[in-house]
Amino acid sequence: MMHEWPDLDEEERKHWVEALRQKPEALGYFNLGVLEKRSGNLLKALDAFENGLKLAPDKAEFWNEIGLIYDEQGRLSAAETYYQKALQLDPEFSSAWNNWGVTAFLREEYPLARERFEKAVSLNPDSLNAWLNLRDVCRELGDTQQEALAQLKLDELGYTEDEKFTDD
Fold this sequence. Notes:
The chain is mainly alpha-helical. The protein is built from nine helices and no strands. It has helices at 10-22, 26-38, 42-55, 60-72, 76-89, 94-106, 110-123, 128-141, 144-156.
């Protein structure tokens, strides 16, 4: 499941930036943002996503990605605002439900996190991230039956504890 993404070197970055300067496109900014984020350049990724958002404010994916960056920075309130906007635009966006659940989990609001993770897995039953998060929140809540059911689903999906993955 894990994709190997090469780091974005300075020459590639300059190429992307120049191409987008000449012809700004939302998808181009989105792709640049993803590459920057995967290279660990969160501020440059944020800049790319925000530029794309200006061109396509109705695209839930931009709102979700900006939320993820704020999440990684520990800015949970800001992240939640962006996840909520993503869900306002696309109420069936499984990743945004999952990510919004993570903010509740980090705040130890476990029943709320569980609701959000359950919504995420109902929308995308193949989401390893959402099932893993649902399992963990059920563990925190002491619901061993639902924890075991989530683990069974993870097993069915082929998840192993040493597996590393990023986004769904």
